[in-house]
Amino acid sequence: MLTTQLSDALLGVYRPTGPTFVAGEGAYLIAEDGTRFLDFTSGIAVNALGHGDPDVLAAIRAALDTGLIHTSNLFRTRPAAELAAWLVEHSFADRVFLCNSGAEANEAALKFARRWAGTVADGKHEIVAFGGGFHGRTMGALAATARPAYQDPFRPLMRGVHFAEVGDVGEAERLIRRDRTAAVIIEPLQAEGGVLPVPPRFLKALRYLCDEAEALLILDEVQVGLGRTGTLWAHEQAGIQPDLMSLAKPLAGGLPMGAVLLTERVAAAIQPGDHGSTFGGGPVVASAALAVCRKIGNPAFLAEVRRKGAELGDRLHALALRQPRIRAVRGAGMIWGVQVAGAAAEVVSRALGTGLLLCTAGPEVVRLLPPLSATDEELARAVSILEGALAC
Ligand SMILES: Cc1ncc(COP(=O)(O)O)c(C=O)c1O
Fold first, then answer.
1. Which of 249, 251, 260 has most ligand 1 atoms within 8 Å of its beta carbon, as the pocket-test mutant?
2. I want to staple 84 with a disulfide (CB 3.0 to 4.6 A). Which of 96, 142, 302, 323 is the partner?
3. For the segment 241-252, what is each residue's pLDDT rounded down to a tens digit?
4. Nearest 5°: phi and psi at 4?
5. Three-state SS for 188?
């Protein structure tokens, strides 16, 4: 009764299912009645260190104990500066802009790219994005997200966005134009679009085409950055570097935070007042993010993610041999998609009934997003519950 009343007060943009959760412990979420659920959604790729990670909790507690929850960006605070320095030291970037979500990070990246392009040539403002991509639901990010169901109710959208298909180099070459294109935006692995890794040779081709046309390459690593695919940044596996990269989901251990990483070439075009965020980079979230980054950025931690991720992939491929309903298994590191015959949502719902939380990635793909810290036993247990859910 209480649950119904509470839900009724929230705007109906979500369809929450399952119980109301009251606690989290490692890879488990605990419901009001004490039932434990193995959480392979990780809050949609957010809780990379699981629930209640002691280092993240300690960092948040220590930050709270200073009494400094917010100052705004009128003033400097140490955690934001330290986080930016860590990100610069561990990436291609020279500068960092901190904000509060993935959509906001992409929105900022698009603005920074257009601001830079305006300093190169008049009329150089177009964006090239890709079918199957997802960049968020704010107006700019939405304009770069080729989904009629998300876009159509909100037209007219931001103009000047063109879509190509992943893998079609010829089409990308036609659309990326020296006189008009400011930037290309792509996820190195299309997560929401069905867990579709973008072939490294295509990412390399985009890097080349951007350089030829003096356009910027924006990589959206909101979902797959920070260790999810087994390397700190997903693009490392393609051997390329972007000009801008957006991050968000796992960054602050469950607190809301987004970031845009930029090269100095782009940063030099951005002036005070061009963009901003009241909350961006606050001391509590930035402290949590530093703890997350230091832990995930440890090479030994990442090696374990690669080992366990390969093991999970092997288990899912073996399951596909036993279970004819599985059409394909795709993924990397700790993000896997199992394409099924029939509705993925039904499989997710049956798994929920037997204690495993999963999500979908499109109508036919069941998505597994374990915490990067999940144990071998937890990975094995999840695949066994999934097998049961598929067999029904
Ligand atoms: C690749 C990617 N970009 C952007 C977003 C939007 O992030 P947020 O929901 O934090 O605005 C998402 C969210 O799923 C995402 O997966």
1. 249
2. 96
3. 999 999 999 999
4. -60, -45
5. coil
